[in-house]
User: Fold this.
Amino acid sequence: MNLELLQKNLEAKGFTYRYFDTAQQAADYLVESIQGKTVGIGGSMTIKGMGLYDRLKENNTVAWHWEVPGPETLAQAAAAQVYLSSVNGIAETGEIINIDGTGNRIAATLYDREKVVLIAGVNKIAPDCDQALWRARNVAAPLNARRLNRKTPCAQGEEVKCYDCKSPERICNGLTVLWRKMGGVKECEVVIIGEELGY
Ligand code: SF4
Assistant:
């Protein structure tokens, strides 16, 4: 893994790069830097593990459907000034990949946002875009399908991989590849953490 290369390529593509050794340090930084904002959070085991919802709520208005389910929360998150998501794969060459079933998470990272924060443990890093895509499809998505106990071959079968299933419970309906910071997002900050987090 080459973090220097990752930083150089992300910055060349317009992303802001931050690195922290631990999830605790990254959470402290985010709580300090996001204050007085409306904040939306996408479904993320990484963000859940960091305890960010409770901490950000102290100084912001936070919408997260994992804490308060329902369309109202999703609408608030979609309109938030700041949106937090993890990623399913990130390439040392600077591309960022996310797969989504509902679409709320990937949609919110693309447009009309003051700030998007994309958080990734080092387990999400792959050498190039193709391998980051492979990871997103064959590691992140099947493990998420298992967590949700979906009736999909990746969740019910022995081997953890994508079968490109036609199951009605398929969780992979759309994919985003950020080649660069989106024009409709003022700042896109990538927070890399030197620990294994999420899927
Ligand atoms: S497409 Fe189907 S088999 Fe592949 S990861 Fe998604 S849910 Fe699993």
